[in-house]
Amino acid sequence: MTYKYDFLVIGSGIAGMSFALKVADKGKVALICKTDLEEANTYLAQGGVASVTNTLVDNFEKHIEDTLIAGDGHCDRKAVEKVVKDAPAEIQELLKWGVDFDKKDGKFDLHREGGHSEFRILHHKDNTGAEIQESLIKKVKENANIDIFDHHFAIDIITQHHMGEWVTHHTPDIECYGAYILNQKDNNIYTFLSKVTLLATGGIGNVYSNTSNPIVATGDGIAMAHRARAIIKDMEFVQFHPTVLYNPGVRPSFLITEALRGYGAVLRDLNGNEFMYKYDKRGSLAPRDIVARAIDNEMKLAGSDYVYLDVTHKDAQETKDGYPTIYNKCLSLGIDITKDYIPVVPAQHYLCGGIAVNENAESTIHRMYAVGECSCTGLHGANRLASNSLIEAVVYAEAAAQHAKANIGKYSYNEAIPDWNDEGTALNEEMVLITQSQKEVEQMMSTYVGIVRSNLRLKRAITRLKILYEETRELFERSVVSREICELRNIIDVAYLIITQAQARKESRGLHYTIDYPKKNSQTN
Q: Residues of CATH 1.20.58.100 domain(s) within the chain?
């Protein structure tokens, strides 16, 4: 069966849904959701959205400079200026869609987070992502031009390759005609033809064993784009959030927002000593890459599995009111954060690289856009500044929407696309082959391609990954397609990109820290 839509949107976080809402007045939209609309990285975002709103003390130049400093000399300045300057207008759009940011005395109650020189983080208590996601879900469901396909999984985007043409990264004018999509309810694969396709598939967290990302974050969009020969860049810059709740065996890890450190929380070692000033003059408010490496080093020095985050010196009621999600979660585990230290550990949190896009969010494949965490705009450089991701998603969703609407009249459906061919395949009855391979990738990436790397660690990782790649390729070719085998294939593709691009960077920069090319005066090992 074949579906035809003007706009095919793969991914249902803030990037995908805001794009869908912005283009729905120009045609029919298919919104592809891997599970339920609520299950997205956006939903789990606690901190907030960075934007200059208090112009009495803040300005664009300060936000730009903070972003460039965090990005460690690797940002695209044009992308930074675009996001920072376009942010206020997109905040107004979010307000129009019903997002309720906290206010105090009639003005936005702004937070400050690591790396920010001013209070500029708009938030809804400590569950901003959930507030945004729920508001957008409501608007999307109300729009008659948007069809929601939940529990649908995108297998591959469709290009000339599927018509028998040989396609490489050097092939000019690669075009996207839609995607092959698995309906997980009936296990059939359908062809979705589109005039425009947007990838908004989120992060890659489950490439690692410890992550704050939901279980759906398996790098699907990046892997699909890579197989279609789009340019993928900056994959070595994997951000580890310094503070997730230490609670072994639980996935995803529960995030302890950076806003808590902006509020005044302090990192301490197991003896109760504050340690961050040994590593950076900004102490616990240093950028995430510095804090994560410092915690990693402290854990190695002490032989411990975690460090502490201390907020006990702050007003108890203010803490409960401002951070109810964190307070209640910790309390459920016997930790009263107004009296007890919080055990925390770094975990994979965000990817700064991804599908390379221009100022219109166009990938190097024509008619295919990428927005949100799966894209690489150049905003984040080598390290994302806290709370810059959600605003990047809506700014580039707007750019993609305007460009797509201006050009969609030039496109038509490619009626020559064949149906998915699964001839000669059989049901895979050995699920253990998939689950064990995924565990091997997660463990290998966490051990060898984590916060601190080396040439030897990366070499070991790629050697082991090549074996897993061949085993998975053979399994995929002979098996009836399932979400599980597709996710494993995607995880391996993403791991390959991270390792090889890390090997190519012969320096320590931002989130990519290697002991073979250490930065001067670094105390991390």
A: 431-480+482-504
Judge if the upstream peptide bond of residue 248 is cis by omega within 30 degrees of 0.
Answer: no
Let me know: does 110 contact 120? Beta carbons within 8 Å. Answer: yes
Condensed to tens digits (0 to 9), the pLDDT of residues 477-512 reads: 888 889 999 999 999 999 999 999 999 999 999 999
Asked about 288 being catalytic, the answer comes back as yes
DSSP conformational letter for 433: H
DSSP 163-183: GT----TT-TT-B--EEEEEE
Q: How many CA atoms lie within 13 A of 491 on its CB side?
A: 30
Cα angle value 404/405/411 (rounded, 5°): 70
pTM for the full model? 0.91
| Per-residue tokens: 442 | 């997660």
Give the separation between CA 276 and CA 437, rounded to whole angstroms.
37
Residue 338: both structure tokens together: 């107004």
CATH architecture of the domain with residue range 2-236+352-410: 3-Layer(bba) Sandwich (3.50)
d(CA 323, CA 134): 19
pLDDT by residue (tens digit) across 396-429? 999 999 999 999 999 999 999 999 887 766 666 6
Q: Any residues with CB less than 8 A from the CB of 377 and at least 6 apart, and which?
A: 76, 79, 83, 357, 361, 392, 396
Tell me the pLDDT of the chain averaged across its residues: 92
List pLDDT tens digits, range 427-470: 666 778 899 999 999 999 999 999 999 999 999 999 999 999 99
CA–CA gap between residue 368 and residue 19 (Å, rounded): 13
Alpha-carbon span 44 to 65, nearest angstrom: 27
Kindly give the residue spans of alpha helices, DSSP state H, lying in 190-258: 220-227
DSSP one-letter string for 466-485:
HHHHHHHHHHHHHB---HHH
Is residue 356 within 8 A of residue 364, CB to CB? The reply is yes
- Which residues, including other chains, have CB under 8 Å from residue 463's CB and lie 6 or more apart? none
Looking at CATH, the fold of the domain delimited by 244-346 is given as Flavocytochrome C3; Chain A, domain 1 (3.90.700)
Cβ neighbors of 507 (< 8 A, separation 6 or more) are 514, 517
Instruction: Name the catalytic one among 112, 288, 453, 457.
Output: 288
Phi, psi values for residue 439, rounded to 5°:
-60, -40
Pick left, alpha or beta for residue 430 (phi over 0 → left; psi -120 to 50 → alpha; otherwise beta): beta
